[in-house]
Amino acid sequence: MVPFRSLLYCLASFAAVVQGSVTVYYQIGQEPLATTTAAGAVFTGLPAYDTRILNPPDLPNPMPAPAFTIQLQNGGTPGASILQGTFFGFSIEMSVANQVLGKNSSLIEVPFLNLISNLVQRSGHVRIRVGGNTQETAVLVDSLPNGRMIAKDNDNTSNPTKTPPVDFTTDLLYMMRNISELVNVRWFLGIPFFDTTNWRLEIVEKGQQILGDHLLGFQAGNEPDYYIRHGHRPATYNPYDYFGEIGDLINVIASNPNIPNKDCLIGPGIAAGEWTPESVWNTGFVDSYSQQLAYLAVEHYPLDNCFSRYGTGTYRDPQANFINYLTHDAGKGIVATFLNTTAYAQTKGKEVIMFETNSASCGGLPGISNSFGGALWGLDYALQMAHSNFSGALFHIGGQSVYYNPFTPPPTNETGYHKWSVGAIYYSALIMAEALGSSNGSQVMDLQANFGNTWTPAYAIYENGDPVRVALFNFMTDAPGSTAADYVATISIAGIGGGSATPSSVKVKYFRAESVGYRGRNMTWAGQTFGDFFESDGRLMGTEDVKTVQCDTVVMTCAISVPAPAFALVFLTDSAFTATGDHSAGYGNGKGELGASIETFPTTVHTKMLNTATVERAILATSNGMINDFGSTSRGSSSGVVGWKEILPSVALLTSLVVGAMVILGRF
Ligand SMILES: *[C@@H]1O[C@H](CO)[C@@H](O)[C@H](O)[C@H]1NC(C)=O
Ligand SMILES: *[C@@H]1O[C@H](CO)[C@@H](O)[C@H](O)[C@H]1NC(C)=O
Ligand SMILES: *[C@@H]1O[C@H](CO)[C@@H](O)[C@H](O)[C@H]1NC(C)=O
Ligand SMILES: *[C@@H]1O[C@H](CO)[C@@H](O)[C@H](O)[C@H]1NC(C)=O
Ligand SMILES: *[C@@H]1O[C@H](CO)[C@@H](O)[C@H](O)[C@H]1NC(C)=O
Ligand SMILES: *[C@@H]1O[C@H](CO)[C@@H](O)[C@H](O)[C@H]1NC(C)=O
């Protein structure tokens, strides 16, 4: 096994290479691309880069109490969730996988790897689904023109979301495999479900063969409750028909010798729009197919923006709807529909995944989806799902034409001079990963704080029965300079069998912006940011700012102030802090693989790479936002990373460089 330390060196090289490209690029005047297309200019037009800033809602009347207590208990708390592992993942529309993940199996997007690596450091692994509406008609072909991995058939669109059918090659699967070799990603795929007579199971055959243990399962049917509305089934189609189709699929898989793991299905994947979950459970779905069902899944968006995008449904005014995302009731309202389902699943020994979700279907809402308020919404919603016994949630990533992407590569016509854009929902993912940590055994509990006030929710996260972290939200936005809407939460912990277990001090990280409407670099997590549109290489920028709060050791309480608006993550123990990434401590918690950070690589690695690797301008001009080749390099010495200088001059592709280095470093 390759030691994780080696992987860190590899990632350090990513970092260094990306850094190098910045250096090359921003030499405006020497850089042909930069002079021809105004480097750094933010173009308008595409929803992913919408700059709208909404006004925050008025302060509530009456105001929530400005101070409240949170009494926690060591040794087990009734009502806490089932054990949680990695929770917050992503759903990538299949047709844009070649923009987000990489161009092909040997050209993987470096910013993507960095973004996932940030999460892996905090939560151990990340689950990603490649699918969506486009999986339903996807065809595995032997090859595509120009060596492409995915081709869209734009003339042949279906669904209100105009998602085109895709052709793909096995290189997509190899790329996913290659990604998993670099960062710990586990994948979900989907089985085309529009033709249930001639099942197209090549994706299952090749997927299992190529992805092996990195593959978690295959969704069978994407939003079947919308099949009638979208014209894919006759008007009589109902949950029993779906039940029958799954039975057929199971039979076909059973007799397919090229599918070794037959217990890999995920369903029903309903949008819970037309069908209730119960209407599917009542068919006997879970009992009948228990053996073959790897996970249960549902999908849901709290609102749709289809009118603005496609002229169907109801117009949704972003400003008027903003407040609906800025309370604890927002997430609770979505989850309420599924409480019976998560309880039912527990009785059947199944995990429920929110397989595709985000702020609004048909691309999200301008000014909401990508705002600080949107990030708070995503985080509260994710914690609420964890509290409610979901076992994971996948936030959807569309292309350039949606508002809600956690991260977006630059449009292909601008990759030469733009970096990636990290959206609000990525901050939700990052903070959720830190809140739950990497134990695989955390429990989440909605504390009904402040008498259940919807503007000031709080959660506790437990490990081995003891509270380890507390999550505090303040959804309100106050006038600049005013502290009227700030609050103080006073935390105490009761020990097992009486007495106090309140620590003498706690660490706190704040997620902040001046207004819920703000976005981009005006949004900071512990003082750090991913910047504005087109500014990110996938790593946090700036210096991390972690507060230490001294507790009152006489009355045994810790008073945490939470400004309006803000989120605060309180680490109740030192190990709760380091387990999710003490970013100053390098290799972290002694487990060897977690709590380390890309930002803290030995600077010698950065320096050497910067000095020895340059990126050819012609390649920047044609790359899809990634660094796909090296120009001139010179040999140099660098202690501890002997492998680099030996292979650097000759490598052609970044990913092979990294894997090569892993192998070489692994021998030391
Ligand atoms: C890139 O393409 C998008 C979408 O067609 C367009 O809005 C944008 O202006 C283009 N950028 C440049 C620099 O031409
Ligand atoms: C990936 O794309 C690059 C550039 O188009 C090409 O040189 C390379 O051969 C491709 N790799 C694979 C595995 O297709
Ligand atoms: C909960 O789900 C079960 C199983 O499908 C069903 O029998 C029951 O009616 C549901 N309860 C509610 C309140 O929907
Ligand atoms: C989650 O599951 C646990 C364990 O079964 C249970 O105690 C708790 O009430 C459930 N939470 C919700 C919100 O349903
Ligand atoms: C958590 O679960 C994942 C997936 O099952 C596993 O790979 C990992 O080793 C587990 N981590 C710990 C700390 O148990
Ligand atoms: C990625 O996948 C290709 C298959 O196309 C394989 O030949 C190559 O060695 C892999 N690259 C890395 C870096 O693992």
Radius of gyration, whole Å: 24 Å
Q: Classify the secondary structure makeup into a structural class.
A: alpha/beta
Total strand segments = 25
Can you summarize the main beta sheet? Answer: 8 strands, parallel, barrel
Helix percentage: 25-40%
Low-confidence stretches: 1-43, 582-668
Instruction: Estimate the strand proportion.
Output: 15-25%
Q: How many helices in DSSP terms?
A: 21
The largest sheet has its strands arranged as 2-5-9-10-11-12-13-14
What is the CA-CA span between the terminal residues?
12 Å
The hetero molecules present are: 2-acetamido-2-deoxy-beta-D-glucopyranose
Average pLDDT rating: 82
Q: Quick one: overall form?
A: globular
Walk me through this protein's architecture.
- Helices cover 29% and strands 19% of the residues.
- It has 668 residues and is α/β, with parallel strands linked by helices.
- A hairpin with a 2-residue loop joins strand 3 (102-104) and strand 4.
- The longest helix has 22 residues, at 4-25.
- The protein is globular.
- The two termini are 12 Å apart.
- The relative contact order is 0.16.
- One 2-acetamido-2-deoxy-beta-D-glucopyranose binds at residues 105-106, 171, 174, 178, 181, 655-656, 659.
- Residues 37, 43, 45-46, 411, 413-414 line the site of one 2-acetamido-2-deoxy-beta-D-glucopyranose (NAG).
